[in-house]
Each structure stands twice: as C-alpha cells, then as structure tokens.
Design a protein that fits this description.
571 residues; alpha/beta; 9-stranded mixed beta sheet; 5-stranded parallel beta sheet; 17 helices; 22 strands; 30% helix; binds 3-acetylpyridine adenine dinucleotide
Length: 571
Amino acid sequence: MNLKTNIPTTGSAQVETFDAVVIGAGFSGLYALHRLRDQMGLSARVFDIAGDVGGTWYWNRYPGARCDIESIHYSYSFSEELQQEWTWSERFAAQPEILRYLNHVADRFDLRKDIQFNTQITSLVWNDKNKLWEVGTKDGTIARGKYLIAGTGNLSVAKTPEFKGVETFKGEIYATGNWPHEGVNFAGKRVGVIGTGASGIQAITEIAKEAAHLTVFQRTPNYATPIGNAPMDPETERQVKSRYAEIRTKSRNAFLGIPYDQVQPSALAVSAEERRRVYDARYVQGGFRLFVDSFADLLFNKEANDTAAEFVRAKIRERVKDPQVADMLTPKDYPYGTKRPPLETKYYETYNRDNVTLVDIKATPIELITEHGICTTTDEYELDAIVLAIGFDAMTGPLLSMGIVGRHGLKLEDKWANGPLTYLGITSHGFPNLFFITGPQSPSVLYNMPLAIEDHVDFATDAIRYLRDHDLDTIEPTLEAETRWVAHVYELSQQTLMPGTDSWYMGANIPGKPRVCMVYLGGAPAYRKICADVQAKGYEGFTLDRTMTTEGRGHRRSLATPKRKLFTCIE
Ligand code: N01
C-alpha cells in the first residue's frame, strides 16, 4: 500500500505524509521523483528553495558558465527516448541550454506537479516511533516521508565572504553562485573579480570583454587547460545516438565517467618525446583528456605529475605575453589535478588585454573592502562592481545546512564534527532511510555527475524497493561497515597526491572546516562494483528492520557481516 495520508499535527494544520520526500529539484531530485513516482508507483514530494527546477544550473547563471564534461555524456541516460530526442547545440553546453534541458525533462515527465518550490527546508527529523522523517521549514513541519532522499548537490552552499568591510561597499556586488536572472550589464564599469577557480576563470574571460576595466584578485593560480568547445558536430551526434547505450556503459566503466580510452599506465614509462606528443594531443582535444586520458599515475606519483604540471606551466608562459603576469598565473606549489583543473577558452589571452589587471593577493592580501573598492596591503582599487567567485562549502555544507536529526536526537552536524562519516557515501549510521545522492565519500565530484546521480538514485530506490518487497521498514548502515568505509576512503586518499593540497576536496577552502578527503578516489568503476556487490549480498553492511510483525512483535534482521573484510575488490 502506498503511503499518502494526512496525519494531524499537534495544531489544526494537516501535514501530508508521502512514501518519499526528496530535497532538491536539480539533476538528482528530478530523476529521483521520476523513479519513485513513475517507475515504482510511490507517492513523493520534492522540495526546493529555488523558484524552479535546475539545481546548480538554476543558480549559477554567471557569464561564461558551462559544463566541463561533453554534453552528450553530461546528460541523463535513464530514458532512451529522452537521449534520442534532445539535441545539444555545442560540445560543452552553456548554462542556459543545460537549464532548458532540465526544464524539458521536468515537462516531459510531468514532474513539476509534485515539486514545491520556494521552500527552504530547515529541519529533517527522524521520528523513531512512526518510522518517518518529519520535514520542516522555519514555520514548522510541512510534510512527512518514510524515505528521505537528499538531492542537494555538492556545490550549493556558498562560501561566506571573509572580507572585512564587504557590507560597506557602495557599488554592485555579485556572487557567481547566485547570479541575477536578468543578467548584469558591466559595460563601462570598473569590475573586480575575487577568485580564480572554475567559476572565476569562466566569468573573468567573459566579463573582460564587456567591462571598462577588470581587476582580477588571485590568491592561488590554477592549472587551466582548453575546454575545446565547438558547435555540436551532427555526424558525431548521429554516431553517438546510434549506440548510446553502449557509450553509457563505457562511460560508467571509466574512472571519471567519460568514455575516454587512450590512457596509458605511467607518464614515466614513456620517452619525453612520447609524453609531449600525448600531452599536446590531449591539450588540443580539450575536456578532461589531459587530466584522465593521458597517464593513469598523474594523481598518484609526484614525479609523473610533475611532467604534466610542467607541460601546463609552459603553455601558460607561451600564451601570456607579459612574463611577469605569466609567472603570477603559473601554479608552482601544488600538483596538477589536486584542485579540480578548470577548463577554459582564451582565459590566459584575457591577460594580454589592455583593460585587465592581475593582482596577486597571496603576496599582497585583501585587507579591507571599502565604500569605493578593494584595499590590499599595498594598493587601493576603485571599483563599480565586485564579483565574488570564492567557491562553496562543498559536499558536507548542503547536508549540514538542513538541520538533519537522526535516531535518539543525533544531529548530523555533531556526528560529522570531525568530517563526514558515511557508508558508501550514500548513508550514515544513526540516520535510517536517508540517502545522500552523490554524498561525501562517494566518487561524486570525480565522476560524471548525471551518471553518478543516476547510480545513486538507483541504489537508493532499489533499496526502498527491497524494503517494500520484504515487508521491512528501515535500512541503516551498521557502525562497523561505516567505520570500515571511512577508513577505506582515507587509505585510498593517502595513496594519492590529494591530501597535500588545500582544496575544497579536502575541506581546506573553509576556515575551521575539518581537513579530510571527502571524495572516494578509487574511481567510478571500482565504486560501482562495490555497490553492486553490497546489493547482490542482500545489502551487506546494512541493518534492515521490521518494526512490528502482524502479531505486534518487533523483528530485526541484521545483514551486517562485521567479521569479514569488505571492499577487497580494490585493495
Ligand atoms: O570555487 P573554487 P569555484 N580570499 O573553490 C578563491 C565546479 N564548477 O566556484 O585557491 C581570496 O574552486 C580561491 O583561492 P584559493 C568545479 O567542480 C564547475 O570556482 O583558495 N581568494 C579560489 O581561487 C569547481 O571546482 C564548473 O587560494 C579566495 C576561488 O576563490 C567547483 O565548482 C564551473 C578566498 C574559489 O575557487 C568550485 O569552483 C564552475 C579569500 N578569502 C564551477 N576564498 C564547470 O565548468 C576563496 N578564494 C562545470
């Protein structure tokens, strides 16, 4: 029987109860709703703070925003009809087109009628008596759900600006992650951009073309490489569509979830000439080919990494005319790929323009934002507009912002005070029937996101189906399985170069945030195999509970196997 009842609250208002509640109406929430409602026949309600669908693509409307994985791969695979009927106009679609795509999906599958927009969820509390999640806003409980799917994304909570005096600035101030829908006209203005991550690099390139003067405030230079964007080639599209299912399988069997297939084992096993040939070819081909389709040891071996890092540094020096500016733009003190490598179109040439100035705020930090602009330790820059491209409280931030409280009043923020603790990056002990889509300690941000999302939504909804088929109420990971997973993610990270770099992967971009690697670094194929094994063994590492039998007795079936070592397949 599907759950859709109206349990009275303590007051007079009726609170609807659904089988499943989903938070977020981006790639995750839309697919989760389709799967729960249309494929499983369950009642479901999606909540989103935004005014419409789109998730990250609803908010990030800054100039230059586009995806960094080829759109024919960065798209849903769950519906053959959808992937056949949709046509991308560019290799790497820009934000407006991706948002149109998600709107098309919402309309095509009639999803909007079960989404409540403009609703900020501030509490998600597990009621152990009723075995339900209570979903609240600041005005109180608004819904209940037996299963809770958090499709809140990894990069949806903006980093708080740490600049003294920011509130005194009299000009316009914008954040890349919450860009005005009507756009911004920078013509004739003196604009300052703070931050040179993927968002900053995309925005800087476009704003420079329009502003009277652009001043870029850079703390850490990045290893940006060409995206290689172009109009979609109809023949490529035809070929992909003629064997889309096969290509999707190939994607899912690739480290980053893109069907590249030229990677060689080691940069150190080939001659300098061969390395140069490989790097040159991948640099021209664009996308993440240099990063994941050149040599497999770049993230694991510093000497191998140095060869790629030096290749990118040389390209920066070639492309930027002023040697001093080129030097400022050249990363020197961290390995290539240990921050997500941004992809660009003529980013470095932007610094050859007369109307662009680069300021090194590691050498001369920002001291103060005043009414008129930005003061560093040595200079004052008068500005009409400031753009903050300073990043996100990544991965854990979105989950910890919703007031999640599990069994026995356990707050997620307390449990994760020293870093995320999950099993498979999708569940956490103490929080029954809660699934984090692309959560911390899954490959998520190092996996092609729409495919990562589909995998996680499928895992969550398969688990829900299993519960229902077996007349069980709850699923929750055991502490033992979780502890082993956390240790496994840590051990994998220690085999890479990631932990040494200050990045959002490590939580190092937010002052005071625990410094732990939040990404599973064994690659999407190994991860998918582990999840499939867990499922095949009847949810190994989880406790599945039935609260009351028909005779009214409690029943508990633990499927955990704490003595045996899990995850042997990738050790
Ligand atoms: O954020 P970031 P982002 N003072 O954290 C600087 C995805 N994405 O929004 O490196 C001065 O990478 C900070 O400097 P530093 C993608 O996964 C994808 O750009 O900390 N500077 C850095 O330069 C990406 O990785 C696309 O020293 C400060 C910048 O701000 C992720 O989103 C497009 C500062 C922040 O860079 C995040 O990218 C855009 C301070 N107090 C984003 N605080 C696609 O192409 C921060 N900075 C799909």
